[in-house]
Amino acid sequence: FLMQTSEMLRKICMRNLVRKYCRGLTAERKVQLQQKVVTSAVFCGKKEGYLESLSQPFLETRLRENDLNPKVLQLIRGENIKYVTPVIKYDRNGFKARERLLVLTQSSAYVVEMAKIKQKIEYSTLKGISTSNLSDGIVVIHVPEDNKQKGDVILQCEHLFETVTKLCILANKQSLVKVVKGSLRFRIGSGKEGTMVFSVGPEPQVFRDKTGQLTVV
């Protein structure tokens, strides 16, 4: 009887402690925890660097709305900007690296070059999000094969866990995130596909190899 009573009291005490903790959370802290739960579901045990990312708080955004070119703001007016981060975009043909911004609104993702919108991806059409299991910052956003899209988007993000988490929460497509090993296929456009290969080496690099594939070390 004493053991049963002790177990009941332990459960009650634990429940009270949890209730007290939850009630004491600030709105900002609550958002952090909600985002980290999604990150865990997507990356825990799958991608290198996940454990190190646990202690790093996600920022609301890496750049403010005021940092965007006024022409870009005019083009996406009416959409609530949720997150902006600098990225490196790799061309689908030739894989040349280009500095871009990734702008996430409540309904679409935009790849922006200075005052130009290079590509718009509506979340409703998003087909998938792929990353490797290694510690690189590469993410591929898969888009539908139609005349509106040039092909899948290949990006390198400094804060990959944060960026992918924000994207899949806004798009409500957490289940579409895939962590792959070895290689992945991406659509170039006009029915063509390319291959990206992931490997381990002494220093990080991204280059086009002799076979024409994009190699990420």
From TrEMBL:
Pfam families: Myosin_TH1
InterPro entries reported for this sequence: Myosin_TH1
GO (cellular component) term, any one: myosin complex
Signal peptide residues on this chain, from the entry's feature table: none
Domain TH1: 47-217
GO molecular function: cytoskeletal motor activity
Organism superkingdom: Eukaryota
Name assigned to this protein: MYO1H protein
